[in-house]
Every structure is written in C-alpha cells, then in structure tokens.
Q: What sequence folds into this?
C-alpha cells in the first residue's frame, strides 16, 4: 500500500486511488482537477484552503486502507 504524505502532489494522490478526489472535495478542495493540482503538494493546497494537513493525510490513508481490504 502506498502511504499518502503531506509532501505528495495532489495529482499523485489521485493516482493512488481516484476516490481520494471525493475526500479532498468534501474537505473544501473543489479544484482537485485544476492544472495547479497537478503540481501542488497536499500541504500547499491545505494551507491555501485553511485546512489541517494532518487531518487530510489521515482521512486519505484511512480511505485507501479500507479500499485495499
């Protein structure tokens, strides 16, 4: 299993599992498909949107773990 980290690029997080887009969008990142998301880290995006990156990392990793069971 790939572990998602705050340093990962949004595009790479979506490549781990496309369902991660729903988690990011529900958190307030409605632009996960925009061009900047392909070069922006999760930490950078969280900062722009005023979100706690560690909470996002946990949610994303929990989701991926559930999908791999």
A:
């Amino acid at each position: 299993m790939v572990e998602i980290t705050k340093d990962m690029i949004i595009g790479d997080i979506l490549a781990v599992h496309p369902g991660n887009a729903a988690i990011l969008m529900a958190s307030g990142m409605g632009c996960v498909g925009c061009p900047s998301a392909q070069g922006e880290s999760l930490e950078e995006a969280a900062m722009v949107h005023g979100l706690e990156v560690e909470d996002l990392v946990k949610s994303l990793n929990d989701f991926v773990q559930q999908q791999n069971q």
